[in-house]
Design a protein that fits this description.
single chain, 403 residues, alpha+beta, Cytochrome p450, 50% helix
Amino acid sequence: MSVLGYDPWSPEFVADPYPAFAGLRVERPVFFDEATGQWVISRYADVDALLRDRRLGRSYLHVADHEGFGQPPEAEFLAPFWGLVRAGMLDVEPPVHTRLRRLVSRAFTARMVEGLRPMIRGLAEELAGGLAERGGGDLLAEVAEPLPVNVIAEMLGVPVEDRGLLRPWSGDICGMYELNPSEEAQRAAVRAAVEFSDYLRGLARSRRESPREDLISALAQVVDEGGDRLTEDELIGTCVLLLNAGHEATVNATGNGWWSLFRNPGELARLRGDHALVPLAAEELMRYDTPAPMFERWVLEDIEIEGVAIPRGAEVALQFASANRDPEVFADPDRLDLGRDPNPHITFGLGIHYCLGAPLARIELAESYGALLRLAPGMRLVKEPEWKPGFVLRGLRELQVEI
């Protein structure tokens, strides 16, 4: 039975979770959800604090094994998936996380990312122009999805002829991050992890021998002051993380953002009249309908939140989407205001796990919105979209438009 309408498997909740969040923030800001086995945290101040609190972690395996932490062992068939994921930095904690982030940051620099802007702009204009020439279509399939996957592929150095492989692999791997994925979804994630790892291993070895001007070559060559470098598994895990994190969330941000604009025609007209608003608008659209609305953390030591004791071994569900609508932080939070400034949304997280790819995502979103505003200025919604069933990565099935 849901508490105040919180039900991440309900199509109605996925389509519009904000009324339930409003009730939770007032009446039950911290509660244990029997259906998911998680403590649900909905207020901005609490989510903010817990993201920075080192008594919580993305993983617990640096302090205990599964049995020692009161968790069941992982199924043996999932070993290839977890081996790949834990070779990257997302699901590990210090000191491993600190080392990986330091090394990756040497190659994935702000200067390198900003240098991609002309390529991203050209690709965004090509995709938006194609949509306009055809008189419309599915904005997700024709613009939102191809842009980030091609940007990541170009950045990594994946040959053009292989780029069609990336989207299915990314989708299947990210299916494991939903709540209680089915065995079918788990096995699909394992297959994708094996195939993607094998592909990248071959690419990484060729780049070690013959470096090029791409990120895989840079990651293969990076060395810190102490002579440390990424292992082959760590390089592969990092590349997979960059694709998955940089693709799924950006697609959802684009689709959710345009759906928000179509539902707020006054703000859409404001943006069409002043393209200089695009950077602020991108931030507000990520706040208003957050593409990754929930992140989980394990409780490594007993904690207390809002007077509620949460024991070691528990899992908390930090509701980013709820925090981003908290009236204690955002004036009139349910109103879309494309000029909102300041806008301290937490869509990219906080603390040591703050999204490494945030600067790239911001460029992609700004260039995508800008290209569509310039090349498809009269774009209209054809029909109300439907939401995909997942909540952890929340996005639309399609977004049909005409021009």
